[in-house]
Amino acid sequence: MSLDPGTEAALAEAVRDARGPLVVRGGGTRGLGGGGEVLSVAGLSGITLYEPGALTLVAAAGTPMAEIAAALAAERQMLAFEPPDLRALLGTGGAPTIGGAVASGASGPRRVQAGACRDSLIGVRFVDGSGRVVRNGGRVMKNVTGYDLVKLMAGSHGTLGVLTEVAFKLRPAPASMATLSLAGLDPERALAAMTAALGSPFDVTGAAHLPGEGRTLVRIEGLGGSVDYRAGRLAAVLSAFGAVAVERDPDAVAADWAAVRDVAAFAGRPGDVWRISVRPSDGPGVAARAGGEAIHDWGGGLVWVLVPEGTDLRARIGPVAGHATLVRAAPETRARLGTFHPEPAPVAALSAGLRARFDPRGILNPGLMDAAEAAA
Amino acid sequence: MEMPDPDRGVLARSARIVARLAAVLPEDAVISDPLETRAYECDALTAYRCPPLAAILPSSTAEVAAALRVCHEEGVKVVPRGAGTSLAGGALPTADSVILGLARMTAVLEIDTADRVIRVQAGRTNLSVSGAVAEHDFFYAPDPSSQLACAIGGNIAMNSGGAHCLKYGVTTNNLLGVTMVTMAGEVIEIGGAHLDPAGLDLLGLICGSEGQLGVVTEATLRILRKPEGARPVLIGYDSSEVAGACVSDIIKAGVLPVAIEFMDRPCIRATDDFSGAGYPDCEALLIVEVEGSEDEIAEQLGLILQIARRHDPVELREASDADEAARIWLGRKAAFGAMGQLGDYICLDGTIPVSSLPLVLRRIGELGAEYGHRVANVFHAGDGNMHPLILFDANAPGQLASAEALGAEILKLCVEVGGCLTGEHGVGIEKRDLMSVQYAPADLEAQMAVKDVFDPGWLLNPAKVFPLDASSAHRVAAE
């Protein structure tokens, strides 16, 4: 059985009336659901406000990403955080929704320059675990009025409330783009090349290393003349690491970065997929300890690894300043290892305290984020 | 401004409390002489003053933790204070509180240009963070206008912005980690040099919580390589509607300037008289700044000037060298000083959707006439963050009250058109009682639930942010 409310008020009523756990679902593309009655947000759909001249968009949480992308493309604008589409990686179907993107807090390669999902998000409406409608932030991009629950809701995976509406600040879509690539670097050299690019004044919007293909990629975006200029200057910087190829065809550039964003190299291949967030300079070491195959994004600060099924990756990499999230695995592995990295006790206590206040009955995606805590 | 009655028990125990603090802190770090505590009676919102019970100046996270444990055990309220530059009264003490000043915590703990981070103690000033990495050609992006004086700890508490946040974001977008001491004296680490949180985004919650969830003692900040260059252009228009349309068209055209500043006629006149910047006599003046190499600047400015000309400007002024660029910025940077010459003023910072700009400016003019105060507007137009400056005479009876009443009307207007009460200064004491204009009771309850979790005794930075009637049940439950 599933609940499919068509309005925020009906959704709030459904939460108030719930007698057991609810599995909050946008497009159902993440495959994270536990046990319980499915509460679909898909019925809350549609762009409610779009002002291109103010770089602002507000949409109901169940609005399909495709609808938003099309509306933005018509005005040559975009969501700056480059939300990933992990359906091929996860082997799931469904249509990704904007609320799902916010709930998972996922951000693509442009994270290094334009910030994460939470940095683009400027307002939310949600229904808490008691069925109360709560509003925070708004539709303006500078707002320090009261506590920032907007950031808290991004990446809370539906455990604090069910998102019903989200507001974003947007970016102009780049008129022009380029990928500079190097071949055959080992992870340490690739890190050095990415660091040189990101530490340059040339406004790099992506830096990734794909050992499987033996390629290291750096992206720049902007007005045509500016991209020409920076491509030339960056190629000179990167020439210290080998021969630099420059790709200027927009479709080819977009395809390369979509593959990085969606972790395409691991799609359809056996094994568990982990996502490790670390200080960039720790990236190569962590990947080496993890074993298996790696993809390095965010200039080295985000390491995706493909390891044999059931691998306890956190044990393998040992203590690290950062965290490892289990993205794709069999349910028994997920149950044994936990999706999220265990937090230090005082931090876990604060998180648990927040969940207890926002969802006192513990009915919203129970166990999804606190399983590790319970196991720790 | 209504404040809760001081805790008589705490006042009665003040000698013991001071002695206990002195026992865990260096001798010169505890200030309780009434002549000396007066130095802490207010911040930059000088209309409200109240000397604290004591002020303490710890030098390390361990000292902060030891002092907070004492205060927690004694049930003493604590008001964290960065540099005391808050325009919202964020560091205003209560008579029964201890000021915890960060002035001695200014060290740089780590600089890593490869990982593009700096770690500092929270009392370090904003500008000196950039100063610490300038030799490597890096900088820290958020640039509040008080950046010479304001402390990073205060920036984090208020989620401070600045003129360049259209491109670089505000404090929360540039903060990667904190060491924070809870009111109970527990030291916790949140975030670090990595880019995203392990679980719930507690860092995002702490930033902008106005020192009510914990005392941030150290911060890891994102640093960026300096751009090759930057240059402003000045554009004057006959009407604010047209200037607003020009801003909107620039944004729609796909250029992302680092700053778009807007001044209205009263502000242009005052700043020009004061600074001699040579601004044109017109209704609205825009300063648009772009960054990059010479050629990149030329490309962007070419596009911006083309758009500006379509709107029939009365003045278009380019800068051919650094001196001319400085002259374009001269009046804008002197705006607050210039207004100070004209009298006392209240500076608001409500934010509005950019599309409402003409309506809001017109209504502010009408409201100003109604209340009998001159209002000048200078603001960050790219992001809709207004700074109406309401002039008044502090020595004339009733003037402060009527200026405040006008301010409240202007902020209500900002909320009505879809904006908010404060874009970068914070709520503090100044906008506390207006919070229910923007938020419904359930919205405020959700925020206060966060406070209950982090500071169950409601001891940190008391009587700020939440209207007293809204918070009373929480505060009573905390006792």
Main features:
A: 376 residues, alpha+beta, Alpha-Beta Plaits, five-stranded antiparallel sheet, four-stranded antiparallel sheet, disordered C terminus, B: 479 residues, Uridine Diphospho-n-acetylenolpyruvylglucosamine Reductase, domain 2, Uridine Diphospho-n-acetylenolpyruvylglucosamine Reductase, domain 3, seven-stranded antiparallel sheet, 38% helix, globular
User: What best-fitting shape of chain A do the alpha-carbon axes yield?
Assistant: globular
Shape of chain B: globular
Which fold name corresponds to the CATH topology of the largest domain in chain B? Uridine Diphospho-n-acetylenolpyruvylglucosamine Reductase, domain 3
- Classify the secondary structure makeup of chain A into a structural class: alpha+beta
Radius of gyration of chain A: 21 Å
Average predicted confidence as pLDDT of chain A: 95
Helical content of chain B, roughly? 25-40%
CATH architectural type of the largest domain in chain A: 2-Layer Sandwich
Total domain count of chain B: 5
Order of strands, widest sheet of chain A = 4-5-9-7-8
Chain-averaged pLDDT of chain B: 95
Tally of separate helices of chain B: 18
* CATH architecture label name of the largest domain in chain B: 2-Layer Sandwich
Low-confidence stretches of chain B: none
Description:
The complex is a heterodimer of chains A (376) and B (479). With 376 residues, chain A is an alpha+beta fold. Chain A has three domains: 2-172, Uridine Diphospho-n-acetylenolpyruvylglucosamine Reductase, domain 3; 176-261, 2-Layer Sandwich (Alpha-Beta Plaits); 264-337. In chain A, 32% of the residues lie in helices and 26% in strands. Chain A is built from 15 helices and 18 strands. Chain A has helices spanning 8-17, 65-74, 87-90, 98-104, 111-114, 117-120, 149-153, 187-198, 224-238, 250-261, 283-290, 313-317, 331-337, 345-358, 371-375; strands spanning 2-3, 22-25, 37-40, 47-51, 56-60, 77-78, 121-128, 133-137, 161-169, 171-172, 176-183, 204-210, 215-222, 245-247, 272-278, 293-297, 302-307, 322-328. Chain A starts with a strand and ends with a helix. The model of chain A is unreliable at 372-376 (pLDDT under 50). Chain B is of the alpha+beta class and 479 residues long. Chain B has five domains: 8-101, 2-Layer Sandwich (Uridine Diphospho-n-acetylenolpyruvylglucosamine Reductase, domain 2), CATH 3.30.43.10; 108-225, Uridine Diphospho-n-acetylenolpyruvylglucosamine Reductase, domain 3; 230-335, Alpha-Beta Plaits (2-Layer Sandwich); 343-433, Alpha-Beta Plaits (2-Layer Sandwich); 439-478, no CATH class. In chain B, 38% of the residues lie in helices and 19% in strands. Chain B is built from 18 helices and 18 strands. Chain B has helices at residues 8-12, 14-24, 34-37, 61-74, 126-133, 152-158, 165-168, 202-206, 240-252, 265-275, 294-310, 322-333, 335-342, 357-371, 399-416, 435-438, 441-454, 468-478; strands spanning 30-31, 54-56, 77-81, 97-101, 108-112, 117-121, 138-139, 175-181, 187-191, 215-222, 224-225, 230-237, 259-264, 284-291, 315-318, 344-347, 375-380, 388-392. In chain B, the strands form four sheets. A seven-stranded antiparallel sheet of chain B has the order 15-12-14-13-17-18-16, sandwiched between helices. Chain B starts with 7 loop residues before the first helix and ends with a helix. Chains A and B meet through strand 8, helix 7, strand 10, helix 9 and strand 18 of A and strand 9, helix 8, helix 9, helix 11 and helix 17 of B.
